[in-house]
Write a structure and sequence with these properties.
Elements (H helix, E strand, L loop, with lengths): L1 H6 L1 H20 L8 H77 L5 E9 L6 E4 L12 E4 L2 E9 L4 E5 L6 E6 L5 E6 L6 E4 L12 E4 L11 E9 L8 E6 L8 E4 L2 E2 L2 E2 L8
Antiparallel strand pairs: 1-2, 1-12, 2-5, 3-4, 3-12, 4-5, 6-7, 6-9, 7-8, 8-11, 9-10, 10-11, 13-14
Length: about 280
């Protein structure tokens, strides 16, 4: 018995201290009275504990509510990001379709104004090598494309077919070092040869005499005398013509009218034995 009291004496003392105010309160009923020393002691000891418990319970509640609200906001933000990405993708698709429709419309207008039955092709590959600058198109022998056929866009000359197989063909760009095109200065009708420089950006104007009237900004078009390109297709614009003190010919570069690195659709002009089909119209 005594060992039990010694072991739990602290708990018994605290219980007695708490039991005294409780019994006093029950005996007094609802009648108010001044708290005694024991009441004051118990209230003083229990107030911090009660405050701590209240703060902890409220904090846990607020933390749970905040977590649920944050989780809901995070999920909502994720859904908004997905919806925004879908909207951007759809907008980009619409812009791409609009740009393609504009290009194809320009192609269609060029075809309607031409006497030839051009073959519309899409660029599917690009070879930027200085030794052989070319593009690959998705039309070949099965579509009537043959080696030697000129390739253009509504903006001007692109190049010439150098190889054709069943469903594709390679087009040598006019910037290739091996490219030669017969041209004429549109303003003065001065004839010239346009050659590729191999840098992928500029052309060279050759065989133009020093005394000929050639100015910066003059437009060069195909002469139609090489048996490959039809007459009057824009080749490019003259840049910085120079007349050296020695020699017969002037020096000038030409900026291509077609931005070859960005071309996406082209027109292949049919020819027969190197002669444009337009030249064969009306022949027996």
């Amino acid at each position: 018995m005594f060992s039990f009291l010694r072991r739990y004496r602290e708990l018994l003392i605290i219980g007695a201290l708490l039991l005294g105010p409780l019994i006093s309160y029950l005996m007094s009923g609802h009648r108010g009275r001044e708290p005694n020393f024991i009441d004051r002691t118990v209230l003083f000891a229990s107030t911090p504990v009660q405050s701590l418990l209240t703060w902890a319970i409220d904090g846990i509640g607020d933390l749970g509510s905040g977590y649920l609200a944050l989780r809901g906001a995070h999920e909502e933000a994720g859904e908004c990001r997905v919806a925004l990405a879908d909207a951007h993708a759809e907008l980009n698709s619409l812009k791409e379709a609009q740009a393609e429709n504009a290009r194809l419309k320009a192609m269609l207008g060029y075809v309607e104004d031409s006497v030839d039955q051009e073959i519309v092709a899409r660029v599917i590959g690009l070879n930027p090598s200085p030794q052989f600058q070319s593009i690959r198109i998705n039309r070949g022998e099965d579509d009537g494309v043959r080696t030697g056929m000129p390739v253009v866009t509504p903006d001007g000359v692109v190049g010439q077919v150098v190889r054709a197989v069943g469903t594709s063909a390679d087009v040598m760009l006019l910037t290739d070092p091996a490219s030669r095109i017969g041209g004429v200065i549109q303003r003065t009708r001065v004839r010239a040869t346009v050659s590729g420089t191999g840098d992928g950006h500029l052309l060279s104007v050759d065989l133009v005499r020093r005394e000929d009237d050639v100015r910066d900004g003059d437009v060069v078009v195909t002469a139609g005398s090489d048996g490959i390109f039809p007459r009057g297709v824009v080749v490019g614009t003259v840049k910085s013509p120079e007349r050296p003190s020695v020699g017969m010919f002037l020096k000038a570069t030409l900026h291509p009218s077609v931005e070859l690195s960005r071309v996406e659709e082209v027109l292949v002009i049919p020819v027969t034995m190197g002669i444009p089909s337009a030249a064969l119209k009306g022949t027996p």
